[in-house]
Amino acid sequence: MTETPRMSSSPWAGATIYLVGTSGFPNYGDELITATWLRYLATVAPEADVWVDCASPGPATVLLGGLHPRVRFVDTLWRLCWEAPSDDPWEVASWVQHAVRFPGHAPRWVQAIELLSSADIVHVIGGGYVNAIWPRHVGLVAGAAAAVRRSGGRAVMTGQGLHPAAPQAASLLRKLSERFDVVDVRDEPSAELLDAAGVENVGKTVDDAFLGLGTHLHSKEEDLPEFMLCIQSDLIEVPKPALASLVLDTLRSWGATPDNIGFVEGIPRVDREVYGLIEHELPDVRFFPFSDIWRDGLPVRAGQKWLSTRFHLHMVAASAGASGVAVSVRPDYYATKHRSLIDLGSSWTMTTDVTDVPEAPTGGGYAPELLAKYRETKLELARRIYTPPVRPEPEPPAEEPPAPVVEGNGSKPRGLRGMASLWGALS
């Protein structure tokens, strides 16, 4: 069945915008970033076809499918990253680019790759998912670069948290970034990484979610607890019992009573495990599951005191005027994230020692003028990215080289021929 052509004077009619992100797990911060861009595009480009390439397109459709009138969800680049022959970032980048330029090497996804390679804008949206913790994810950046090489469209990345970087990845990121019209990061270590690698015109703004902060993200409930917690059990370098002990000791020190305490779940089940260790000690505590906060809004208000390991819970609570203490459970990752918000004026403190009970916070969160400034900074970047598309001539089709020598799953380059394939894909 052929789709009826759209008749419109909008410059975005018939255009394709392709977002790449981590939606659908679900994870409150990842969903928030994608939702922010979809809401923005619903305002400035409602007639564009918007595709979101994410790891879990089914759940993402349910969570986010109503935020733009023409949004759909796929997992093409993610599958290509998973299909790469190893975890080595260079091999992943080489293989994904080769598959995008010559889709016959990934025959299960030919149609999906052709769609990707027809996009006017490929936008790797923000988050901290391209780094040493997930080395295969560099293939997302590589695939975006290869796609616009074919289409003649524009590749952009915004709000990236690239720290900690995989070994020897800096020069790879520099090579890939040459294909991007916009390279924007959210924290100083990420900017320093790209600057040291020689990437030109690196922009350092703020996390993408600042573009969409507002009271529409807050619960409308009036009777919310004064003491709020979000304590994760994933990506931690401290024992869960130590976190449980920190929570109980902190609440006692702050003078909290069980009927005035709330636990928030940023990732389903993962953020319930520490709570599960202490719920019998706090029988009247309220638990706010992810499903409720996504539907009804985050239970935040001015005057609250928060203890949070989650970055975006820190951000949204501070934007509502809540005081708080950020708990870094992994120094090479979460300390960088929380420090970036504190440096922007969240008025929170941070602890890296779970044996040390922090003092009760009194900072009160972000000043309204700072939030307005950060939103305008991100809005200026968004306007620069989403100008009506004018596509240059695409690159002429490349002559397909001989298939790499194969082992195992039929995709791993070896020897001189493999190296030639790698550099050919990166050039």
TrEMBL record:
<protein>
    <submittedName>
        <fullName>Polysaccharide pyruvyl transferase family protein</fullName>
        <ecNumber>2.4.-.-</ecNumber>
    </submittedName>
</protein>
<keyword id="KW-0808">Transferase</keyword>
<dbReference type="InterPro" id="IPR007345">
    <property type="entry name" value="Polysacch_pyruvyl_Trfase"/>
</dbReference>
<keyword id="KW-0328">Glycosyltransferase</keyword>
<dbReference type="Pfam" id="PF04230">
    <property type="entry name" value="PS_pyruv_trans"/>
</dbReference>
<feature type="domain" description="Polysaccharide pyruvyl transferase">
    <location>
        <begin position="27"/>
        <end position="328"/>
    </location>
</feature>
<feature type="region of interest" description="Disordered">
    <location>
        <begin position="387"/>
        <end position="427"/>
    </location>
</feature>
<dbReference type="GO" id="GO:0016757">
    <property type="term" value="F:glycosyltransferase activity"/>
</dbReference>
